[in-house]
Amino acid sequence: MHLTLHTDYALRVLMYLGLREDGLASIREIAEAYGISENHLTKVVHGLGRAGFIETLRGRGGGLRLAMPPDAIRIGAVVRRTEDDMALVACFSQGGHCSIAGPCLLRPLLREALDAFLAVLDRVSLAELIGPRRAAIAEALGLGAPPP
Question: Taking the model in full, what pTM does it have?
Fold first, then answer.
C-alpha cells in the first residue's frame, strides 16, 4: 500500500491545524512550514473542506481551521476520503479482469490486509496523533509551544 502525496499533504494540513487551536492558518503559512507547493496544497485544502474536515473563512482575517475537534477526526476516515484508489490489485477495481478470480484466494487475503490497515488508522484520532509529540511537532513547524 502506498499513500498518495495528496493524502500525505492532507494529514500534514490537519496536523498543522490541530496545533493551531487558537487561531486560523493560511495555505501559504502551512506550505512554508512544510516546504511544499502552495498550488498543490490549495487542491488538498479544497478537498478537506469538501469532506468536512476543515472550514475556510474568506476575506480579510480569513484562513483555515478544523471543522471539528481533533479528537473527532479519525485518521482512517481521512485516508478513505483522500485516496482515490484503494485497489491493491487490478481485480479490486471495478471492471478489473482476472482469469483466476473465481478460485483465487489472493483477492480475499489482500482485502483482509487492506481492512486491517484501515482498522489501525481508524483507532487513532488527530488529537492522539499529535498529542504525545505536540510540543516537538509545533517547534519543528515554527509554531512554538502550543497550549496543552
Answer: 0.87
CATH domain 5-87+125-140 topology: Arc Repressor Mutant, subunit A (1.10.10)
Q: Could you state, in order of their start, the residue ranges of all structural domains in the chain? A: 5-87+125-140
Beta-sheet strands, E only, within 2-144: 54-57, 63-66
Q: Cβ(90)–Cβ(84) under 8 Å?
A: no
How far apart are alpha carbons 136 and 115 in whole angstroms? 31
Q: pLDDT digit string (tens) for 107-122?
A: 889 889 999 999 999 9
* Plot region of 74 (φ>0 → left; ψ -120 to 50 → alpha; else → beta): beta
Whether the Cβ atoms of residue 69 and residue 130 lie closer than 8 Å to each other = no
Distance CA(39)–CA(42), nearest Å, equals: 5
List the grid coordinates of 107: 483477492
